[in-house]
Amino acid sequence: GFIAKVKRENGREVRGFELRVGGGLSTMPRQADVIYDFVPVENGEYIRVTEAMIKVFDKEGGLPNFLRKNMAKARVKFLIKKIGIEEFRRQVEEELAQPWAKEPLDMEALTQLAPEGPTVGEPPANGRQPAPEFDRWLKTNVRRQRQEDHVAITVTVPMGNLSPEQFRGLAEIMRRFSGGSARTQQNQNLVLRWVREDALPALHAELTAIGLGAPEAGLIADVVACPGTDSCKMGITSSQGEGYALRDAIMEMGDDDPLVQEITVKVSGCPNGCAMHHLAAIGLQGSSFKAGQTQIPCYDIFLGGGNYIGGGKFGTRVARIPVKRTPPAIKKIISVYMEERQDGESFLDYIDRVGPKYFEPILTEFREVGPISEEIDVYMDWGKDELFEVIRGEGECAL
Ligand code: SF4
Question: Which regions form coiled coils (predicted)?
Answer without folding.
Answer: none
